[in-house]
Amino acid sequence: MFTLDGQVAIVTGGAKGIGKGIAEVLGAAGANVVIADIDEAAGRETAEVLGAEFEALDVTSKARCQAVVDAVVARHGRLDILCSNTGIFPQAALDTMSESDWEGMMAVNLRGAFFMVQASLATMRKQRYGRIVLTSSITGPVTGFPGWAHYGASKAGQLGFMRSAALEVARDGITINAVMPGNILTEGLQAQGDDYLRQMAESVPTRTLGEPSDIGHAACFLASPEARFITGQTLIVDGGQILPESFDALG
């Protein structure tokens, strides 16, 4: 079960962090993985380590999103899996948030996901098969955190997009689902500082932060042939972080 032998997968934002974890797990399951990332140096290094391919990608460019998909299909003749994972999360308080702060977040996190899904549909429809997995977040759809109102809006927006998009392709053999990570120990999270990491770990019932591979395994399940009857759904991977009513419930 859950073998991806012979399948072709694109992982956007796969150079580091959660994307790297997804790429690693998909590759271990047998998929031919293409890492697509704006960071060419890190992307090529990760691809070499994982035995994957690399494509330079700025998800804010619709033309580049289509070009990456076209290049992958030209090489492999198919595209089975899209893990649309690229995301940014710079903090900005509401009273100082600029229009460019807001637009930049939406351009990468929300519009970029739309561009990649749209670019993938023609091939997936032609082959009557496709698995699309979005990397959303618990922040926005379920929880909130000061400084990330624009981030939360982009991640909640991804889920609204996913549900309607899933209906449009439901008869084409294509599923669209999302993973919703909690606090995962990535380079980006580490950049928030030790105090933030301690605070976040204390809010999780397991008292630990997740690893990128935890999201990778969830994405791998949703990308598998066995997940054919699951679409328009979300899978929270957070160590139980959203469960407690208060810190008293953590014991």
Automatic annotation (TrEMBL):
Enzyme Commission code: 1.1.1.100
Keywords tagged on the record: Oxidoreductase
KW Oxidoreductase (keyword) present: yes
Superkingdom of origin organism: Bacteria
One Pfam family of this chain: adh_short_C2
Molecular-function GO terms, alphabetical: 3-oxoacyl-[acyl-carrier-protein] reductase (NADPH) activity
InterPro entries in UniProt: KR_dom (IPR057326), NAD(P)-bd_dom_sf (IPR036291), SDR_fam (IPR002347)
Family in the record: Belongs to the short-chain dehydrogenases/reductases (SDR) family.
PANTHER family from the UniProt entry: 3-OXOACYL-[ACYL-CARRIER-PROTEIN] REDUCTASE (PTHR42760:SF133), SHORT-CHAIN DEHYDROGENASES/REDUCTASES FAMILY MEMBER (PTHR42760)
NCBIfam families xrefs: PRK05653.2-2, PRK12826.1-4
Name of the protein: 3-oxoacyl-ACP reductase FabG
Classification of source organism: Bacteria, Pseudomonadati, Pseudomonadota, Gammaproteobacteria, Oceanospirillales
Gene expressing this chain: fabG
